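Annual report, structural modelling task.

Input specification for the pyridoxal-5'-phosphate complex:
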Amino acid sequence: MLVYINGKYVPEDQATVSIFDHGFLYGDGVFEGIRAYNGRVFRLSEHVDRLFDSAKAIDLNPGITRAEMAEIIKETLRKNDLKDAYIRPIISRGKGTMGLDPRHCENPTIICAASAWGAMYGDLYETGLTAVTVCVRRNPPDTLPPNIKSLNYLNNILGKIEANYKGGDEAIFLDRTGKLAEGSGDNIYLIKNGVLSTPPTINNLKGITRSVLLDICAKLAIPFEICELGLFDLYTADEVLVTGTAAEICAITKIDGRMIGNGVPGPVYKKLLAAFQTETQNSGDA
Ligand code: PLP
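The model returned the following structure:
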């Protein structure tokens, strides 16, 4: 696989970063996860915008333009002759001194890697995921805002570890006030009496797949609302689902041992999944 690193495309084993890179030392950097379908990058400009907004929020100047980043992402796909792929651009603070002061990092490190990708959850798109709520709380917006897609994913990883121990395919995070936040790498929705609801993006990442899903709801005349939700809403929903670039759209059919609805993926999920697949197969930048 060829990887872009600081201006060059090199074989992956030659793509190295300094151990003094603050991305490695402190998680000081930002990243994106992007899908390509049929050789076309899905929602490219939205991902580049979020990457640059995340960088802005941590006062990191990428040193290249959004258009240049978009071209790097497409070129990484082309150079590796990938059609269905997952693409990972990263901008880290770059090499500095051992101390955390970013002023000692002269240039950011810019990386873009890609690999072939299929359906993340395999057969579970048919049966639904088993999820568990975790004790770890989503980091509050007045600490590390969840809308910064930073290289510091420990909060998410701690939840994932907990879910692994509890036998869940995915972790569901609440925030510190007990409100529903999101999954470890996806946004969450519930459907009750035909209405889809999802939390506002104060305690979760403003997912690009989330906006695709809400657009699909509007097109299919599925009513939706953005509102605060809690455990009771989750347990008593007719359907629950998650969306993310990697996860795409997947139903959750069991949460904390409780069956959701009839315990099988429901009709609204099936409609949304079909429409999402049509959207991913028919749009994107080459
Ligand atoms: N929430 C978190 C914590 C994520 O890491 C992701 C993945 O990027 C999402 C939600 C879903 O966002 P998107 O649909 O843009 O991939």
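The mean pLDDT is 97.
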